[in-house]
């Protein structure tokens, strides 16, 4: 029984490693870039409490060292994905999970792609986008006020 559990663990570990590498390819992110992001996020190894080196992160990504469960949130954050994305590459299944996760918060679910893309904006572009959205909000509020006055 112990051997079966160990085999299951290894198979699932390799699936997670494979899925992380697929996401890297999909998002056109190099392993080196991911390693830098993880180091910048201060991801610490649970055993030593130290930030892994770039070469040890490569070992995790190549499947030479087992990725620990407490590393997955950091990796997900660095890739701009949800942790459950590591366990399924079925888009429909992931969407079901996300809908359940967000529950009544349909707005966040609906705009999650936009939210994920924000990390790729330059600070200046993000500032311009924020200004545009604030201006749009003010215009809508003014319009609603005018419509309310007309209705009364």
Automatic annotation (TrEMBL):
The cross-references to PROSITE patterns, in alphabetical order and at most eight, read: HTH_CROC1
Which CDD domains does this chain map to?
HTH_XRE
* Gene3D superfamilies according to UniProt: lambda repressor-like DNA-binding domains
Which protein are we looking at?
Answer: HTH cro/C1-type domain-containing protein
User: Per the database record, which ranges form the HTH cro/C1-type domain?
Assistant: 53-87
Return the InterPro entries for the record: Cro/C1-type_HTH, Lambda_DNA-bd_dom_sf
GO MF entries: DNA binding
Organism name: Campylobacter showae CSUNSWCD
- From what superkingdom does this record's organism come? Bacteria
């Amino acid at each position: 029984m112990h051997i079966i559990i160990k085999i299951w663990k290894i198979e699932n570990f390799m699936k997670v490693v494979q899925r992380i590498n697929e996401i890297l390819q999909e998002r056109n992110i190099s392993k080196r870039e991911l390693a830098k992001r993880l180091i910048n996020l201060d991801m610490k190894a649970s055993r030593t409490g130290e930030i892994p080196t770039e070469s040890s992160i490569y070992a995790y990504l190549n499947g030479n060292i087992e990725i620990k469960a407490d590393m997955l949130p950091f990796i997900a954050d660095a890739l701009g994905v949800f942790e459950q994305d590591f366990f399924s590459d079925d888009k429909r299944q992931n969407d079901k999970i996300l809908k359940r996760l967000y529950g009544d918060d349909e707005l966040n679910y609906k705009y999650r792609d936009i939210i994920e893309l924000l990390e790729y904006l330059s600070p200046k572009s993000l500032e311009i986008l924020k200004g545009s959205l604030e201006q749009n909000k003010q215009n809508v509020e003014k319009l609603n006020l005018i419509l309310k006055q007309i209705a009364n």
